[in-house]
Amino acid sequence: MNAGTKEDPPRGWRRLMIEPARPAVIREWPGAHWLVVATVSMGAFLGQLDASIVTLALPTLQQEFNTSLAAVEWVALSYLLVLVATVTAVGRLADMIGRKLLYTYGFALFTLASIGCGLSPSLGVLIGFRVVQAVGAAMLQANSVALIATAVARTSLGRAIGIQGAAQAVGLALGPTVGGLLISLAGWRWIFFVNVPVGIVGIVLGILLLPRSRHLAPRVPFDWAGFWSFGPAVILFMLALSLAGSNGLTSPVLLLVLLGAAAALFALFLRLERRAPDPMIDLRLFRRRSFSTAIAAGLLSYLILFAVLFLVPFFLEHVRHLTPVQAGAVLSVMPIALGITAPFAGRARDRFGARIPTVAGMLLTAVCLLALTLTADNQTALVVLLAGIGVGLGAFTPANNAAIMAAAPAQQSGMAGGILNLTRGLGTSLGVAIVGLILGLQTSQNTSASASAVTTGFQTSTAVLALLALVAAALAWRRDPPAKAAGTPTNTPPEPAV
């Protein structure tokens, strides 16, 4: 339930578990669903801005706390691990108790944790608040696409998700610039304090503009067995990917132990979910080819995106001898192109279906990546091809995300959104691990890590990524037409007054 009955109104703390209705003037406005998109896009922008800012600040934090780079990396790694391990569970919980409720509280938790991060007196305290911040981010991310999918008509879903994708891309592009300015002018603590005013505005807009949840799943006992097998499995797998990306194959025994433990826990999770009466993840979703192929293709797209974000600055700084600021400026061409393309690609999905923009976008990405293997020594070509990759991924992502949400029943929108964001986190780690492994193997053959060795690693990486883009295009081609029964209802019933 989202509101108390007249006979037994909720009192005390129970009122905090009730989603407040929007003001009538907003609820009755025909364009109210676009206010939902704008509110969710603010959270998407903040999430990507925070991720890219923190990564930039790691060297500064190393100096501030006088510790090793390996220790400081846990500021970023702890956030990513907790986010990916919890986002699917949060999505399932939101399907039962309310997506607006958890989204708004997620903004509040993220904002409070940001204050804690900024005031942290030690590295350990900072990492602890980053864990709390990740839980808030999971509450935001698991519900962002789900809120859009349940508020926007199917005929406009691609456009709406395209706008959200553009907000994410802008946050990703602005992160290094904003972070560099804040660190140089005000100090590292302000990379966290900057979240506070945005978070306060987000909380207020969430209360006023987001609709109360519809099509909720029945409230049943939460699948704790599934959570405690799935979460550690994801964490161990991502730790293995992080180890492979940073150290290559220098610790094969530890790598195999982590992967083996992750595989065992994941097998246990699948067994538990098949037997659970109310599983955390409904495995029947993956029987829908339109859902499973879109999830697989989406995982590859995020892998490619974050692999390029990691690979290109490494190449520019070690081979072209650009400064980090210069390399960041060159790289920003890609997320900017992605952000410009995404809303138009969303419109194309609404008009022509998901297959055309997703297949065309991935084919363009593959061509540009392949061309990078041949033109690595040409600065102008590099910039143009990065823009092309951005356009390709911008064409693919909103259409594919809309296809994922349209393939899931409305009462499982939170679960589907959680799975979607899980693929983003896994894609991030897989992309960095694959590129890091390729570069590590190549440069290990040359102890001086010469420019030629790095260039060869760059060319090999882009060729592998081009092949993966072709696989994603093939998966996108195999998708089924949108199911008539699944997805978002074209009309949302009016909210009752409180």
Please give a structural write-up.
This protein is mainly α and 498 residues long. It is 76% helix and 0% strand. Helix 5 (99-119) runs antiparallel to helix 9 (195-209), helix 10 (224-247) runs antiparallel to helix 11 and helix 12 (289-318) runs antiparallel to helix 13. The protein starts with 23 loop residues before the first helix and ends in a 21-residue tail after the last helix.
Shape: globular
Number of strands: 0
- The percentage helix is over 70%
- Uncertain runs are 1-7, 482-498
Backbone CA Rg: 22 Å
Report the total helices: 18
Task: Quote the average pLDDT.
Answer: 79
The fraction of residues assigned to DSSP E strands is under 5%
Biggest pleated sheet: none
Q: Tell me the span between the first and last alpha carbons.
A: 13 Å
Helix/strand structural class: mainly alpha
H-E order: HHHHHHHHHHHHHHHHHH
Brief descriptors of the model:
single chain, 498 residues, mainly alpha, 0% strand, disordered N terminus, disordered C terminus
In short:
This protein is mainly alpha-helical. Helices cover 76% and strands 0% of the residues.
Helices and strands in order:
Layout: H1 24-27, H2 32-65, H3 69-72, H4 74-97, H5 99-119, H6 123-151, H7 157-185, H8 190-193, H9 195-209, H10 224-247, H11 252-275, H12 289-318, H13 324-331, H14 333-352, H15 355-374, H16 379-407, H17 413-444, H18 451-477
Helix pairs in contact: 2-6, 2-7, 2-9, 4-5, 4-6, 4-10, 4-17, 5-6, 5-9, 6-17, 7-13, 7-14, 7-16, 10-11, 10-17, 12-13, 12-16, 12-17, 12-18, 14-16, 15-16, 15-18, 17-18
